[in-house]
Write a structure and sequence with these properties.
single chain, alpha/beta, Nucleotidyltransferase, domain 5, five-stranded mixed sheet, 13 helices
C-alpha cells in the first residue's frame, strides 16, 4: 500500500511538473498584432502580460486595394522587423491578430487568414476588419469609432453589445471624407480654378509640384492608372493650404468633416445612442494633421452626437488585434 501511494505521488508530481513546464513555455511565447490600412501597416509584438516589446511599420496591407499577396508581404515585413528587434523566432509567436482594411469581403478575409497561418503555422490566427479592431481599441461600454484614413468608416456598439457599421466599403461605393476622397475633390477643384482663371491656384500649384507633374493631363493619367498613389497623398498638402486660410481647401475639408459626421450619425441613430452618453473616438491618418480640419470635424461630430465624449482610442488597433487573438 505504501509503495502504491508513493507511486501515485511520484506520478502526480511528474504531471504537475510537466504542466508547469508547458505553462511556462506558453507564457514565454508572444503575440503579434497588426493594424493594416491603405497607406501603412503597424505591427506590435506583445508578451502575455500585454507589454509591448516592439512596434514596427511597413507599407499598405489593404488586400482589397492592392491584392492579397502584396498585403501579406507588408505584414511579413513588419513582423520580421519586430522579431529582429526582439531576437525572437516565428516559433515564439503563440497567436497572431490582424485588424485589416479590406477584409469586410469574406473571401478576402479567409485568404488573408490562410496566408497568415502559412506564415505562422504554430500560431492561432484571428483576422478582424480594421473597423472591428478600432472598436475593440475603444474599450468597454457603448462607443462609436470614426476612422478617417486612406478610407473611411464608422462602427459602434450599444449597451447590449450590438454593433453596426457605416461605410468602409472602398472608394467605389463609400470612403466619404477619407484621404482618397479629399484628394480626388482637391484635384477636381484645382482644375476648375485653372479653367476659370487661366492660371493655377496656390492649391493647384502645390499639387502639381507634389507629383512633379508638368500638366494636369499628366497627373490625371497617373491618377487613372494608380489612384491610391495619387489621391491619398494630397491630404498633407491640402491640410497645410487650408490652415493657411485658402477658401477652396477649407471648403473641401469642411465637406469631409460633414461626410464623416454623417457616418457617425447613421451609426448613432441605428444603435439609438444619439441622446445617450458614450465614447466617440477618432482615429486614422487624417486626425491631428490640420488644426482647421480637426476643429471642423469636432464641431460636426458634436452636432451628430451631442452627448458623446469625443477623444481618441484607449489603445492602438494593432494592440487591440493582438489582445483579440490572445488565447
Amino acid at each position: 500500500m505504501f509503495y502504491g501511494n508513493e507511486l501515485l505521488r511520484t506520478e502526480a508530481l511528474a504531471r504537475k511538473s510537466k504542466c508547469q513546464q508547458i505553462a511556462y513555455s506558453f507564457l514565454m511565447r508572444c503575440i503579434l498584432g497588426f493594424d493594416g490600412g491603405g497607406t501603412k501597416t503597424e505591427c506590435v509584438l506583445m508578451d502575455f502580460t500585454d507589454h509591448v516589446l516592439a512596434r514596427t511599420y511597413a507599407g499598405p496591407s489593404n488586400a482589397f486595394r492592392i491584392g492579397v499577396e502584396p498585403a501579406i508581404r507588408a505584414l511579413e515585413e513588419a513582423a520580421n522587423l519586430a522579431l529582429l528587434e526582439t531576437s525572437l523566432k516565428r516559433s515564439d509567436i503563440a497567436a497572431v491578430g490582424a485588424g485589416l482594411a479590406g477584409t469586410g469581403d469574406p473571401a478576402i478575409k479567409e485568404r488573408m487568414r490562410t496566408s497568415l497561418k502559412n506564415l505562422f503555422p504554430e500560431s492561432q490566427v484571428v483576422v478582424l476588419t480594421d473597423l472591428e479592431a478600432a472598436l475593440a481599441a475603444a474599450g468597454e461600454g457603448p462607443a462609436i469609432v470614426v476612422v478617417a484614413g486612406t478610407g473611411s468608416g464608422a462602427i459602434g456598439r450599444d449597451v447590449q453589445n450590438q454593433t453596426y457599421r457605416a461605410g468602409g466599403y472602398g472608394p467605389l461605393s463609400s470612403d466619404e471624407g477619407s484621404a482618397f476622397d479629399i484628394g480626388r475633390r482637391a484635384i477636381a477643384a484645382a482644375m476648375r480654378q485653372r479653367e476659370q482663371n487661366g492660371v493655377d491656384s496656390v492649391l493647384g500649384t502645390q499639387i502639381l509640384e507634389l507629383f512633379q507633374a508638368d500638366s494636369w493631363a499628366t497627373l490625371q493619367q497617373h491618377a487613372q492608372t494608380a489612384p491610391d498613389e495619387v489621391f491619398p497623398r494630397i491630404f498633407p498638402t491640402i491640410a497645410a493650404v487650408a490652415d493657411a486660410g485658402d477658401a477652396v481647401a477649407c471648403e473641401i475639408l469642411m465637406q469631409a468633416a460633414s461626410n464623416l459626421s454623417s457616418l457617425v450619425a447613421e451609426v448613432a441613430n441605428r444603435l439609438e445612442l444619439r441622446e445617450q452618453q458614450f465614447s466617440l473616438a477618432k482615429t486614422g491618418g487624417l486626425i491631428g494633421r490640420s488644426a482647421f480640419f480637426d476643429t471642423q470635424l469636432d464641431s460636426a461630430l458634436r452636432q451628430a452626437a451631442p452627448q458623446a465624449q469625443i477623444g481618441g482610442l484607449r489603445i492602438s488597433p494593432a494592440e487591440a488585434a493582438a489582445l483579440a487573438a490572445k488565447p
